[in-house]
Every structure is written in structure tokens, then in C-alpha cells.
Amino acid sequence: ALFISAPASGQGKTTITASLARLLHRNGKTVRIFKFGPDYLDPQILERGSTTPVVQLDLWMAGEEWCRLELFRAVSKGKADIILIEGAMGLFDGTPSSADLAAKFGIPVVLIMNISAMAQTAAAIAVGLRNYRDDFTMIGVIANYCGSNYHAKLVRDELPDDLPLLAALKRTDAVKLPERHLGLVQPSEMGENFTEQCLIAGADLLEESGILTHIDRLKHVTFHPPSQLIDTTTISSKQLMGITIAIAKDDAFSFTYTANITLLKDMGASICYFSPIHDDSIPLEANALWLPGGYPEVYAKELSGNINMLLSLRSFHKEGNPILAECGGFLYCMETLIDLHDNTWCMTGLIP
């Protein structure tokens, strides 16, 4: 297992984690990725790298025992050869932080650093972060955005022997994923071929760096089942048996947690998906609706122009069917929405 962290956001954690997963996958490994913290966007990229669903781990939202159970399941049920966990923001940011999760489960940390504007100072920062606390283990550094082999050498020579440079990745646009407000652009918007080519290029860079040698030397981390049983009474009772929940899923609405959908299925619900942008109506079999967050402000024109879907939603609501709307989905339920260019568009009008 490996916990991939950084001094801050914008260092390349998601791209490198997904690329490493792709490299391991094409070398025959079963890889399971987790994302630390309540993130909707990074897991979409990470899933492309590992080819398996990504679950978020958060000690505050879900609790230690639930996190322990998910890690144990990944190995025992998912048969993962290696677990990768991508941290959030900087190593010590937040309460709890990435370092807290790594320390709790004894997962070694690798520090990713964007060294484009520094050299030997990168080593000083890495050593400082490693020594800030003594309850976790940092095993090495990945230098991202290296200008040359000599640039990487300046960092490597300043790092202590017990904190080696595991990989030095050159600057290239071939692995650069576009960003906007809230984070990375969704793979569906970039195009699957673009995302795939980025992951292939990233995996190639990592392989050329020789990182697999270090991965092979990783010490085994044992994940144990929870020390106390998690109450599954409400799950086993199948309270949602016979209920079909339609979930909005397209470029405008995609902010869902895999764990929540799994829970709904465990409780007996059937799940189907629909696109408020492209489809004409809510699925006929649906008797409940979930409108999650996303980017309705980016696709306000398309949402407003799909008159048939607006009418279908209004009819569904008028019939008294339950609707869960959150974040961007809640905005979709308003009468109007102002987009990023100050244009006003009609929405469903479910909430006057």
C-alpha cells in the first residue's frame, strides 16, 4: 500500500496516482485506489487509471471503523495486489489530515512535489515535512515537472539516504490534465481518448523513471477487519426493495459517491441513470429521483433547451414522487439559473 501526498494542491497528485495505477495494471497487478476526503472530481480520473471504482475515505465523515472495513474489503474481497490512496491538498491540511489517515493505518507516504520553480529547496521541504511528525513513515519523493536530468540531480543529491528520490518526471504537456473552478475537468468532457492518452503517457514516464523497482520493495501492509461490528441492520432489512431510483448522470450532474450508490443497492433499491441534457424524459420505471451536484451553470443553455425533460421532471414532481436534489441538482430545481456569462436560463421551476 502507498499513500500519495504532497506539500499542497497543484503538485500533480491525481495525474501521477492514476498514471501509476495504469502502469501497475498493465503489469498485471490488481490495483485499488482510494481518495482521501470528500472529492467528486479526482475519483473520476483515478477510476480510469485503475479500471476499478474509487471510494472516498474520510475519518470524520465515515469514521475509522468504516475506513478500516473498506481497506480490508479491498484486499480480502477485491483481491487487490496494491492499494493506492491519493491525499487531499497538503499532507497536514485539514482535521483530520492525509497524514492522520496514513498514520492510523500504517501506510507509507510518498511525497509528490512540483519542483519547476525550485531545486535543492525541494529537499529541504521534503525533509521538513517528513520530520514534522513521528507517527507516520515517508519513504521517498517524486519530483514532478523536472526541467532536466541535472535539475533532478540537484534534488536527489540533497535528499538524505533514507528519503530517496523515487522518480523524476520531466515537464510535458502530454500528461497535463485541464482544470477549472472546483478542480480537474471531468474525463467525459475532455474525451475518453484524451484522458486515455494522458494516462498512457504518464505510465510511460513513470516506467522510464524506474519507479517499479521501488514499488517492488514496498513492505507489506496488513489491513484488519473492524474491531467492532458495524451495524448493518437497516441495510439487511432491504427497506428499499421494489424502489427504482433514477440518478441524473451526464456532464452537468456527476457528483456522487460510489459508497452511497452501493448502500442504496444493498438496501434493495434498483438504480438507473438518465441525462437531463440529452434524454427526453425520466426513465419510466423510476419512482424516486436523485439530482446530484455538478456543473449546471456550465450547461445551463443545454438544460434549459431540453423542454421535454423539464416537462417530465415537473410532471414527476407533481405526482408526488420523492426527489433528492443537492448542490447543482438543487439549482436545477430553481425557476432560473444564471450562467458564467451572466445569461439567465429557465430551469425546472420545482422550487419557486
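the 2nd protein, sequnce then structure:
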Amino acid sequence: MPSPHEALYKSAQDFTTSTSSQTHLEAHRERFRARLVSSSIADGNPLAVPYEKDQQKIYFRNLKFKYLEQEAKRSFLFSITGDEPQRVMPGENEELEAENKVKKAKLKHVKDEIEGMRSEAIALAKTNAEYHAKNAAAASEATLLSRQIRDMELELARIKAAHPEETRMTVDEANDRLDAQTEELERLTSEITAAGPRGDQLRSVVAERSKKVLALARDREVHEARAEDVRRSREKGGSGVRVHEMSLWYESTLNAYRNLMGIRSARVVSPSQLVLEYDTTLPGSPNGVAQLTLLFDAQQRLIDAVLTGAGAGEVDGEAEPDIREACATAVDRNDAAGLIADVLVRLRPL
């Protein structure tokens, strides 16, 4: 039985003798001879021999590996198909190479087309992704709107059920009410505009009276200090009670009270009648003065009160103050001071 090396050598000889054309081994042999002729050994340089020897070993080692690889491929194909490998005829490699060039050119063209289609597909994918996001947002919005529409329909059905047609307001009625409300708004706006100057006037009056109140507060502090001195003197029990100063304090206190209450003057007409004059801001009052007459019985209880000079009827939208209810309340409680304060509020509206 021949050895593997002998079989391999025999196969190589059969392959080289079975074709009339130059084989790969012959081509390698010719290239080797050409390199040998062109190498530095041909020049007779002995120092280049080791280097060239190593290069030739490497070259033959690679050549042997290629040959063994090709032979292994041939044996493998033969073991699978059972057919002898195809013979390469002269000129066939050149034709195949030309066909390969043409096919490579076509392949390159097809690759370029595929690359263009790939780029276009990527751009279309991006565009489709944007369209998908927009469509998803629109679908979400449509879902939300449909849900809201259903809720509104349910709410409308509930309202219709809660308010039958016979109790609903028609369009004409709604328009009439809207027109009435518009007119009311216009009237109120005109009243607000007209009340602007009066508000400024009242603010100036309030500021002036605030100044008077501050001045009276300072006078009150002075008089209270004097009263404290009188009280201390009275507690000591000495002869230092200043009756005159007490009289002055009492008089100033009365004046302060009158100023606070807006009382211009007070006079006793009879034991059962007291007349007070007020400063008033109501229009229609002569010289800005109103007169309140208090009537008392024998036990000094309030029995009636009459207000005059506070305006005749309605002047510039302001009606004459009606103190009948306040008078009845004060008579029941015997509260003359409360009636005096109530009349002041009615004579000086804000």
C-alpha cells in the first residue's frame, strides 16, 4: 500500500501531465527562476545567500501549503460528488477573468443601487417614524376628544332630564334677559361714573374730619391729664381741689363730644325739650344744618324726637332721613345718646 506522500506525489504528476497548458506549479516554478535570476545570488554576493535561502524556504513553505490546500479541496469535492475535477482549458482563465470583471462591474452598480435604496429606506424610515409619532398624537387627541364628547353628551342628557322643555328658557327670552342685563350694567356704570366726583368729595371730607379727630384726641389727652390731677388732689383731701380746672375740663369734654358727634350747638328750650343742631352733608339742608328736637317726660325719659332741616323730600337721589324706627328704639330703651349718634350717621353718609 503506497504511503500518503507517494499518493500525493502521484496525484501531482497526474495533474501536471493531464493538461497541455501550464499549471500553477509551473507558473510558480517560472516565477521562482525569475526571482533567482534577479536575486543578488546571481551577482555573486555570498553574504546574501542566507537571507535568500530563508526567503526561498518561506516561499516554498507557502507554496506547499497552497498546493496541499488545493489538493485537499479537490479530494474533498471528489469524495462528495464522485466526479473528476473540471479541467481548465487554455484561455479559459482569461475568459473567466473578463466575465468576472463584467460581473464585478455589474455587482458594483447593483451595490450602488442597493446603497441608494438603503439610504432612501433610512430616510423613509425616519419620515415614517415622524408620521407615526404625529399620527399617534392625533389618535390620542381624537380618543380624548371622543371621550370628552361622550361626557358632554351625557351631561347634556342629564341637563335635559333635569330641565324639561316646558321649563327651559327660549332664545328670545335669553336675548331679552341679556338686553335687560346689558342696560342694567350700563346704568350701573353711569352711576359709578357719576358717583366718582362725590366719592372724591367724601374722601376730602373724611380726611378733614380725620384731622379734626386727631386734634380732638390730643385735646382729650390734655384734659384727661387734668382730670387725673384733680382725682389725685381729691384723694389727698386737701384744699387743692381745682374746681375751676374741673369746670374747664368738663366744658372742653363736652365740646369734644359735640365735635365728634357733629353737634354745632345744644340748647334747652324747656325742662322737657332739648334742641340739637347738626352739621350735615345732605343736599337740601339750609346752610348745611339739621335740627333734632328731643322731648322728655317729667321723669326725664325720652318720649319722642323730631328731625327737621335735613332736606325736603328727595334731592339728587338722596331721600330725607327717616328716623322713626331709630326713634322708637331709643324711646323703648330711653337711649337719647344712641339716638344722637344714629342721627349723625344718617346725616353724614359715606
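The chain has four domains: 22-85, 136-165, 198-261, 262-350. DSSP finds eight helices and six strands in the chain.
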